[in-house]
Amino acid sequence: MGRDDVALSQQDVSCQAPIQVTAVGILWRTKTKPAVLDANIRAVCEDLGNECHVLLSGRITIDSSPGLHRLLLQRIESSDCQRLTVDFCDVSYVDTSGLAILVEILKTAQMLGKTLRLSRLRERPRYLLETTRLLHLFEEVNREDPCQSHSWPESPA
Known about the structure:
This protein is about 25% helix and about 25% strand. By secondary structure, the chain is an alpha/beta fold. It has a single domain, classed as Transcription Regulator spoIIAA. It has a six-stranded mixed sheet.
């Protein structure tokens, strides 16, 4: 199982480097690779066999969208990833650029014969997906799971 924090910057959007983890709850880990993003969004990737999970935290805006797009595209195009689950538990805001990314990643997944799932959508992101009539396009999981506060590592100075 590989898991690490990533910066969604131009230089590095990889979640491939395996690290040692302790599986207690969904996100507790003994070792992380903290990284700075554009200060709006963070991501933690986890590989479980042929399933990939990306846990997001923050706000998905026009500024964070390019890096997030690269990360999700990399994950869904990986031969090890047949099902990508994106967890929105700690995402408080998504703008239309975030919606465009989700639709594009969904189309890519379908072309590759893979699955994209959205997990634990909060009120505001869910509302945007519903009002744009896009929510029905996605498989949604863990709708009733409570979001727990996660301890995100400090960014390097």
